[in-house]
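Justification of computing resources. Each target in the renewal requires a structure prediction run like the one illustrated here; the chain below, 169 residues long, is used simply to show the kind of job we budget for.
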Amino acid sequence: MKLKAVATLVLVGAGGIAIVAATGVWALSGGLYGCTRADEELAPTLASLSILDAHPSQTQPQGERYSGCDEDDGFAYAGQYFRLTTSRVSVLTFYRKAATEDGWRLQNASSSPSPAPGSLAVDTSALCFEKPIAGTTAHLAVWFPSDLGDSPDDFGLEVTASRDGTAWC
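Resulting structure tokens:
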């Protein structure tokens, strides 16, 4: 009888270790961190949005449109940089109109979204819009790298979305 109890204990213990090991492999391979397959598949949809083609006539696209999935925060993104050859006010006025006409709803606007000195940048978008895209809520940000101390001659558009709802401007 003792042999049967020991065998049962060994089997239960081995099964428990296997479950813990499998859970660890799952967590390290993206189960608790990184992008889901659904979010990775969402990135090309975001990159094809026509709003990323819209820009004031005085501005020009800089570089290629980019897209991907943010592994740290687990959301899909797509964006485009533009050369800033008109006033910031003109850019913001243009996108308030263009985004609204494209079905985006303004969520917030900030005249000076720069983070306070010594603080972390959480939301540096000058304009933030929302719109349903492919069954989830997408966020469109109009932002200026100069608000972070970079590239005073550029501005950017970026769309983010996530199947689990963790995306933001």
